[in-house]
From TrEMBL:
Any Gene Ontology biological process: proton motive force-driven ATP synthesis
Native species: Symbiodinium natans
Signal peptide: 1-24
Main location: membrane
Cell location: Membrane
Protein name: ATP synthase F0 sector subunit C
Length: 135
C-alpha cells in the first residue's frame, strides 16, 4: 500500500514538474523531480525493509538513490561551471586587463563547484558499498 502511494506521489510530482510547471510559469524542474523521487524512496524504504522479501528492496532503492546522488550532483555542477565560465569569458572580453584576476577566481570557484560532485560521488559509494541499511 505504501509502495503504491509513493509511486503515485512521485508520478504526480514528476508530472507537475515536467508537464504542468513549464506551461504555467518558468520554474526549476530538476529540483522538483529530485525531491519527488527522493521523497518516494524515503517513504518506501522503511516499509520495504520490514516487508516480506524486503532484503531485495533495500539494495535496489540504494542503487536508485546512488544514481540520483551522482547524477544530480554532476548536472548541477556542470550547469554551474558552464555559467561561471561563460561569465568569466564575457568579463575577460570586456576588460582584458583583469584577465589574470578573473582566471584565478574562476579556477577557485570551479574547484568549489567540482567538490559538490565529489560529495555526490561519496554518497553514492556509501550507498552502494557501505550501506548502513543493510545488516
Amino acid at each position: 500500500m505504501v509502495l503504491t502511494g509513493a509511486v503515485l506521489l512521485c508520478s504526480g510530482a514528476l508530472f507537475t514538474a515536467f508537464v504542468a510547471a513549464p506551461r504555467a510559469a518558468p520554474a526549476p524542474t530538476v529540483p522538483h523531480a529530485a525531491t519527488a523521487a527522493l521523497s518516494a524512496i524515503t517513504l518506501v524504504a522503511p516499509e520495504a525493509a520490514h516487508a516480506e522479501g524486503g532484503a531485495v528492496w533495500i539494495p535496489a532503492l540504494s542503487a536508485i538513490g546512488a544514481g540520483f546522488a551522482i547524477g544530480l550532483a554532476a548536472i548541477g555542477s556542470g550547469v554551474g561551471q558552464g555559467i561561471a565560465s561563460g561569465r568569466c569569458i564575457d568579463g575577460i572580453s570586456r576588460q582584458p586587463e583583469v584577465a589574470d584576476d578573473l582566471r584565478g577566481v574562476l579556477l577557485l570557484s570551479l574547484a568549489f563547484m567540482e567538490s559538490l560532485t565529489i560529495y555526490g560521488l561519496v554518497i553514492a559509494l556509501v550507498l552502494l558499498f557501505a550501506n548502513p541499511l543493510i545488516k
